[in-house]
Amino acid sequence: MGVLQNDKIYASLKSIGAYAPLKVLNNFDLEQMVETTDEWIQKRTGIQERRIANEDELTSDLGVKASLLAIERAGIDAKEIDAVICATLTPDYLCMPATACIIASKLGIKDVMAFDVSAACSGFIYVMYIAKSLIESGLHKNILIVGAEKLSGVVDYNDRGTCILFGDGGGAAIISATTEKKEAILDIQISADGDYAHLLMTPRSRVTHSNDEKTLEYLQMAGNEVFKIAVKTLTNDVIEILEKNGIQSSQIDHFIPHQANYRIIEAVREKLNFPVEKTVLTVQKYGNTSAASIPMAMNEAYEAGKIKNGDLILFDTFGGGFTWGSALVYFGGK
Ligand code: UT7
After folding, report:
1. pLDDT category, 1, cuts 50, 70, 90?
2. Average pLDDT, whole number, for the chain?
């Protein structure tokens, strides 16, 4: 690719890859663990099963497997990657080393910037935003972005309000420089509101709460409150990004929302008038995989042969923080 000096540089989503651990935890397994039923879970969430990583399989391992696919599909060598950014709320280590550093090392990527981003379920859209900015600035050419989670490590399998929802997995993409506007990431908007932090949390850091008996051991969620705010925020976010870019919902080829709960996706889809066939749905197979949810869903549609070069994709996500974001992307891959 020759980027001429006077050509405008755009960031392009060149490839997608994902990995789902092999072990399946289905609703009937959960019936044996907490007071719940397959019927309740399917009716309230749409989830039938989720994947669980092995004990010795870490978030970085899930990210590496997804990255290998993304790198191969982008048709580049790992040596051409000049930054690695990983979104996760379940890093291999608390704060350091960053999971992105471990992923880069496992992939043999040396001497490039590597860091993690903590934005919960919105993480993948956050890292896409950072990659887009770095590429449009002209400082970087090929960035590996990863969303990977081992949520089974922070979920309380005695809490029926959360353990039915979450699963493990990884997704990755290569974001590259291009001069082709028809293959560009058109727009991304991300935001946050920490006033809602208490509604969805992982264990407190021992650094700041070492003597606090209330230090949480597991992920905690006020599910119903999160649900209502999620529907409203996800809907408004899409309306805003479409209006801002003068795009009608009928022009979208694929709507890829965060896979948290089938009812949330349906509520947003119906309000925005997206046809079912254009809405990517994987929550039934993988549950909510947080930062991995969007790339895993996109990968599923890609592997089914549904996503073609130049297709216009709308991403929409919401998660702990609260954080949220949406993106309009012309697929730049093959
Ligand atoms: O990814 C980031 C953002 N996260 C989300 O977007 C998740 C949002 N929240 C949700 O998906 C839903 O709120 C849940 C699936 C977690 C819960 O569904 P809900 O329809 O909001 O149920 P609820 O919390 O209002 O609870 C209704 C009833 C309660 O019983 P009572 O008080 O009415 O007797 C719960 O105790 O359902 C009960 N319940 C269950 N029953 C059977 C809660 N969990 C279960 C369960 N099985 N697993």
Report:
1. very low
2. 95
Tell which residue, 183, 121, 116, has the closest CA to residue 144: 116
Prediction pTM value: 0.96
pLDDT of residue 2: 44
Calculate the CA 66 to chain-centre distance: 12
Q: How far apart are CA 259 and CA 295, in angstroms?
A: 10
The whole-angstrom separation of Cα 293 and Cα 314 is 14
Which tokens in the block code for residue 295? 């790339």
Domains of the chain: 10-181 (3.40.47.10), 185-330 (3.40.47.10)
Binding site membership of 227 for ligand 1 (Cβ less than 6 Å): yes
Write out the H or E segment, with its range, that includes residue 143: strand 142-149
Does the CB atom of residue 89 touch ligand 1 within 6 A?
no
Q: Ligand 1 atom 30: the closest Cα is on which residue?
A: 161
Q: Which of 257, 40, 23 is nearest to 161 (CA)?
A: 40
Would the CB of 44 count as within 6 Å of ligand 1?
A: yes
In contact, 188 and 249? CB cutoff 8 Å? no
For 127-167, how does the pLDDT look when each residue is reduced to its tens digit (9 = 90+)?
999 999 999 999 999 999 999 999 999 999 999 999 999 99
Report how far ligand 1's centroid is from the alpha carbon of 51 (Å): 20
